[in-house]
Amino acid sequence: MTSDVTATTSSTPDSRVRDEIPALRIRGLVKHFGAKPAVDTLDLVVPSGSFYGLVGPNGAGKTTTLSMATGLLRPDSGQISIHGVDVWSNLLDAKRLVGNLSDGVRLFDRLTGLQLVTYAGLLSGLTREVVVERAHDLLDLLDLDAASGTLVIDYSAGMTKKIALACALVHAPRLLVLDEPFESVDPVSAANIRDILEGFVTSGGTVIVSSHAMDLVQRMCDHVAIIAQGRVLAAGTTAEVRGDSTLEDRFVELVGGRRTGEGPAWLRLS
Amino acid sequence: MVATLVKLRFLLLANSLKKKPWQLVAVIIGALYGLGLLVGAVALLFALSFGSIEFARTVTVLAGAALIIGWTILPMLTSGIDQTVDSARLATFPIPLNTLVLSLAISGVLGVPGIVTLIAALATAGTWWKHPAAAIVAVVCAVVGVLTCVIGSRMLVALSSRIGAGRRAREAKGILIFVPLLLLGPIIFGLSQMFRDAPNLFPRIAEIVSWTPFGAIWAVPADVALGNPGRAALEFLIGVATLAALLLLWRWGLARALETPNRPAQSTSRARGLGLFGVFSGTPSGAVAARALTYWIRDPRYAQALIAVPLVPVLIFVYAGGNDNLAALNTVAPIIAVLLSMSIYTDVSYDNTAFALHLQSGVSGRADRTGRVLALAVFAAPISIGLAVASVAVSGTWQILPGLLGITTGVLLTGFGVSSFVSGRFVFAVPAPGESPFTSKPGGGVSLMLSTFATWSMVGILVIPEMVLAIVGFALDIPILGWLSLVVGILLGSGLMVIGIRQGGAILDRRGPDLLAKLQAHR
């Protein structure tokens, strides 16, 4: 167990990505909702070409951090840059580099799947010919081609995640930021999505996922950060962070909050 | 159990009000407004007792039938009623079906619209106070009638969530609303011809309606007063049978809804390709326009704005007192132009957090504004101009057409500008996507009314030049002023529209994330 990984460092042991400008660099990020700090001087460096997992308990500030990193929520203070582009002074340039799947945000769900992806592409400034071609490719890739003419409101939760992912991918971003991409996605679709993301990383892209599924993050991500109460508790390569134990054990150890006992007597049937 | 469920309804209302104190104020203003309407209706019904029985019969039958049709059809077209106590959410609890039916019926009557309807219906007893037997019958019939209203609306919602939930049905609904609107001008012209050719049309319609399930129950007291007990009994039978049939249908639909609360996703009908996205230009603003127009057709919340459109000419016709003063009809086109052009000032609020897509993709505020206006203009311009032409045709005042067109286009274009500006800056408490347009947030209706008043005043001030030119032209009969008004309306209106779109777009570019944060807080 290494304790020196609790503070994020800009260098990484991964030789593939050393010395490059990081895909995402966050310094001293602060966001208050009322008096309560949601994000409390958070620092994070996501190396270019990494598959980065963000884990933390409910209310840890994951979604808030990712919203600020992608230009959807204005930070109180702190710097965020994507591939060297300062997000909040060059919003448009930064947004071109990022594909975003937000959790807890609605979609224009009265469009069909094909229309929604087309809409996302056209809004990004692509021409209709390019968008239509890419939309069909993406729907095919995500096994949604059979449902391309169905309204998104009639999609299952898993299909909705997939169409949102297609919207995030249509403008060919360099950095993908995915908030809870595997929530309520069936195992087969999850495996397919994972293949797509791994392919994206292999080809030089960077992926950030936030998730509650420790097993998944441990298997899938080469880097991980544990966030609680708006701060980074540990960050680094997955091997560094989990050390000898599993990521889940390490997470519980750092975050705390396990309770012991059997619950009230009336709940025990025998 | 019944009491618990009825209490639940009021508890939900109280809790939602506690969260937002200013909404309570809005609710109180709304209640006062309802009270005002109610007092007017009750007074009118009493006043009927001093006229002839036949006249009172015509009015009560037609108004009652309109009441039942309104209660049943409106939620059908706009998909939703006050679902404060949603039967689907009760599916997990072990509640006997009959208890549920009774509780939902009672809590339906005890809502604000239910209470208002009930009191107004009971006031028909006042219409017949000179005929005691008829007055007593009227009380019984009022209860039956109000139950028919409430259960009819519940029944259709329960059934339509079975049948009408498919995409095809939803789109059919959209077209059901749009086609008559586009033909509104010719329809008004045709109807006015009909009324001219056939006087005494209303009593004859009432005579027919009194035999239908909608009107029968309201005709009973009148026929008692007229001394036709046989006919009254028959009509009472029709009314009660209607109620029983609706009740059974509702119970059946509810039972089905509880067995299969979540209908499976359907991936059948398809291959419609890009739809409107293939029609508009492949630019960001074209995409926004295609999306917005698709929503006008598919989203019931937008339909709410459209329902007002055919009501305006009817109301103005009624206020103007029938055939005497057709010139009042000339105000229809400008009013519709305001209604339609201001209907998008809550557009971003309607998007709700889906607006995040616009932020993520970095679409410029100006393209966003332009697209929304474009989608609206596609149908608002033909409807408004068509109505202007139809109204001068009906009233036979062709000489005022240029001035009227000046005011109408001026109002329309200025309204586009004002709503583009306002919707980029403010977030309003509107129903969320998928929520019933009529549920709204408690008090949201009134806060919307206040902001509507503010924005309408803004438009009113900005269109003063073309308005004054046209009105002076009408009053002094100087045709050239009418033409001048048309020119000013088009030029000034276009200028204000461009300014509104630019300024609104600039605000959106600057404050987009803050707007999204507010949308998330309102969710």
TrEMBL record, chain A:
InterPro entries: AAA+_ATPase, ABC_transporter-like_ATP-bd, ABC_transporter_ATP-binding, P-loop_NTPase
GO biological process, one term: response to antibiotic
Classification via PROSITE patterns: ABC_TRANSPORTER_2 (PS50893)
Domain ABC transporter: 24-254
Transmembrane segments: none
GO CC list: plasma membrane
Annotated protein name in UniProt: ABC-2 type transport system ATP-binding protein
Protein species of origin: Salinibacterium xinjiangense
Lineage: Bacteria, Bacillati, Actinomycetota, Actinomycetes, Micrococcales
UniProtKB/TrEMBL annotation, chain B:
TM region positions: 21-49, 55-74, 95-121, 133-153, 174-195, 232-253, 273-290, 302-320, 326-345, 373-394, 400-428, 448-474, 480-501
Keywords recorded for this protein, A-Z: Membrane, Transmembrane, Transmembrane helix
Domain of life the protein comes from: Bacteria
Name this protein carries in UniProt: ABC-2 type transport system permease protein
Source organism (scientific name): Salinibacterium xinjiangense
Lineage: Bacteria, Bacillati, Actinomycetota, Actinomycetes, Micrococcales
